[in-house]
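Please review this one.

:::
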Amino acid sequence: MLNAREAVRNLATYHPPLGGRHGLRLDFNENTEGCSPRVLARLRELTAEEIACYPEREPLEAMVAGHLGIAPDELLLTNGVDEAIHLLCETFLEPGDEALIVVPTFAMYEISAAATGARVIGVPAGENFRFPAAELLARINPATRLIAIANPNNPTGTVADPNDLLEIARRAPDAAVLVDEAYFDFYGTTLIGQTRNLPNLFVARTFSKAYGMAGLRIGVLAGNMSHITMARRVASPYNVNGVALACLPAALADDDYIRQYVSQVRHGREELQREFGRWGLPFWPSHANFVLARFGPLKMAFMQAMRQHGILVRDRSRDYGCEGCVRISLGTTEQTDRLLRAMREVLAEIGAKEAAAK
């Protein structure tokens, strides 16, 4: 009888709640305004011949590499960051190897690593979701072959000190150390220039967040030239679809659109955090395009009432240490104003101040 591998049979299933997403989408950390108008214009110009041809990735890799200030051979375009994670695991993990992740974090690190038969070890974040640098360093051993770190982290929005990340890469020379910078645009600090100094360091980026192209699935994996060559062997030559590649130059060219959107998100982030403070709701200062707050027993009432106002937010209670927590994404100034008006009404209705005072 045919059976899936044991590692696959034992995998946790990741089911993002994508169904019925009608209203203001503040639940998936997407760009809530959409992609650049230049991208839409390019989509409308696509020809039947362009759709009929197999996509050519390399010219666009050279363009993105130039945008990031690295060499084309130090970069691989991927089908979203999800594929970048998968390729690293397939390239460097053997059954029985160890992979270290900090929890809570993005679910796909554990899923992709465990699918190879590797042993995934979760290192709990410290108090207030502090990055556990010392604890992570203490878990590195000869079996460690992958360390995956989201910076900023999802779902907490917290960040690690860049020096701590570099020290982890230095102390684990036999492990692929992935720093996932999916939320870089809302943070501004990167390690992408350090991959030449540390050959085991990899940096991931995405066009799904600030660029508003989540539906096109374009990610970036940057790293040492020889290691990127190995990851490229595992990837399909047509892993990024032709429509996404055709639109990428237009996205890169519209810096003003990205700057304007990111500025609105950052301002909204501060407004939302101040609002949580006014209501006495615990939250964690964020460096991403979302804020995580703890609503405790009011969580379900809050989420349901916000949906009735046409606003979707994300329950993160199943993540390690996030019981009773809700993650709320930010968008444009107008959308943040709408969010705050609805929140004030809902929090008053469900008695948030009374609950915080107890």
Notes: The chain is about 40% helix and 15% strand.
